[in-house]
Amino acid sequence: AGDTALSDARILLMLNMVTAEDLVDDQEYSDIYEDIKDECAQYGEVEDLRIPRPVKKDKSKWGEGGSQAALDYQRQDEAAGVGRVYVKYKDADSANRALKALAGRSFAGRSIVATVLSEDSQTSPPLH
Amino acid sequence: KTDSGPRKRRSRWGDAKTEIPGLPTAIAANGVSQAQLDNYAIHLRLEEINRKLRLNDFIPPEKERSPSPPPTYDAHGRRTNTREVRYRKKLEEERVRLVERAMKNDPNFRPPVEYHQQKRSQRPSE
Fold first, then answer.
1. Are the C-beta atoms of residues B90 and B100 closer than 8 Å to each other?
2. Higher pLDDT, A105 or A64
């Protein structure tokens, strides 16, 4: 890939940072959101930050066929990208600065795996 | 949860980078699929958990800890939910979930030996 492919890569994708369980509680979710926003803003202007949350689980369906329901939820969560964190910067330089600074940093005891994506990449994030 | 004055948010960010040799954390995404990225993250997390358990380094620093639950004891009066027990169990359970996801996503994935040992010892009665 040439430089042109990288110049529009302004979305930082971080993995191994949050788990579905961390994001269920509203207070915990907003704490995590603020934590990430504050830190990411140090590397450039952030246009958008998305932390996909798990679907609300309807435990009443967990009686008969409950394990099927649990599997469906898990599939939905995976399709929605739960567990990933997307940060869209104003420009690619900021995204690269953030990548260098944050890949390998620990967040709640987990080492962050990170990459930068362009908007038309196949790993299309839920960003607008 | 107790409500004691204004809540002070604790940061989850650690200061130092902790790279595992052979497992890079900054990835070039060109030609890598979403599924491959996710699988790689699972693999790295499994290594991380194994290291933490092996090195007995799994109790988070105080600022990252959640409030301790009330103590529980066994029939001999020994405490059963010490910090050590709780955090170890948490990581072992996470490991089982990760291994199950990895096996589903990648037919060539070979679970670590600890997974089978744990499965046998935790098997619920059906």
1. no
2. A105
Between CA B87 and CA B92, with CA B88 as vertex, the angle to 5 degrees is: 115
Q: Would you say residue B29 lies in a domain?
A: no
CATH of A3-117, one of 3.30.70.330, 1.20.120.1200, 3.30.420.10, 3.40.1000.10: 3.30.70.330
A68 interface with B at CB cutoff 8 Å:
no
Optimal mutation site among A18, A30, A115, interface B, most CBs of chain B within 10 A: A115
Range of the domain at B91: 34-121
pLDDT at B126: 45
pLDDT of A31 above 60: yes
User: Scanning every residue of chain A, which has its alpha carbon at the shortest distance from the alpha carbon of B37?
Assistant: A15
Cα gap A90→A112, rounded to integer Å: 22
DSSP assigned state of A12: E
Per-residue pLDDT tens for A84-106?
999 999 999 999 999 999 999 99
Number of independent structural domains in chain B: 1
pLDDT value at position A2? 44
